[in-house]
Amino acid sequence: MRIRPEEPEDFAALRELHRRAFAPGEYEADVVEALRAAYAHVPELCLVAISDDDAILGHVMISHGLVDVYFAFALGPIAVDPAHQNQGIGSALMREVIERASQTEYPLIALLGHPAYYPRFGFRPAEATFGITTTYDAAPEAWLALALPAYEPHIRGAFSFAEAFGD
């Protein structure tokens, strides 16, 4: 398996990947396309996991967000083909996207996600740890953030996701 940034020729397959991974809903597939259409994503940090025979196994998307007036990253959606789940593909994508994001000037990555999964990558409750709130109705343990090397403690306040995420 190798990991690389997504390419335009991947887009149809990525929509189908998100549809399969989150069936029967299409919200995640729609968000991926809406983020791209709005240029709210970070192309070099939207990564795909590819098999040796060039099949797309997984995808992670990073988009622009704000903490108060400070630029930040939002992670998600992330999807792994259901036939290849529980094989470390999602973890490999997470490690790689965090490594690449750490080389930027952005201070943090925020997400709404499963509180038993993301802490293994260093994510912590965003409000309790960093003083970063969300407008989404989310359990505190599911609203998570990861400080990147450029993080500074004065970066606090409300996190704003790209409009493509909707309400």
From TrEMBL:
<dbReference type="InterPro" id="IPR050276">
    <property type="entry name" value="MshD_Acetyltransferase"/>
</dbReference>
<dbReference type="InterPro" id="IPR000182">
    <property type="entry name" value="GNAT_dom"/>
</dbReference>
<protein>
    <submittedName>
        <fullName>N-acetyltransferase</fullName>
    </submittedName>
</protein>
<dbReference type="InterPro" id="IPR016181">
    <property type="entry name" value="Acyl_CoA_acyltransferase"/>
</dbReference>
<dbReference type="Pfam" id="PF00583">
    <property type="entry name" value="Acetyltransf_1"/>
</dbReference>
<feature type="domain" description="N-acetyltransferase">
    <location>
        <begin position="1"/>
        <end position="149"/>
    </location>
</feature>
<dbReference type="GO" id="GO:0016747">
    <property type="term" value="F:acyltransferase activity, transferring groups other than amino-acyl groups"/>
</dbReference>
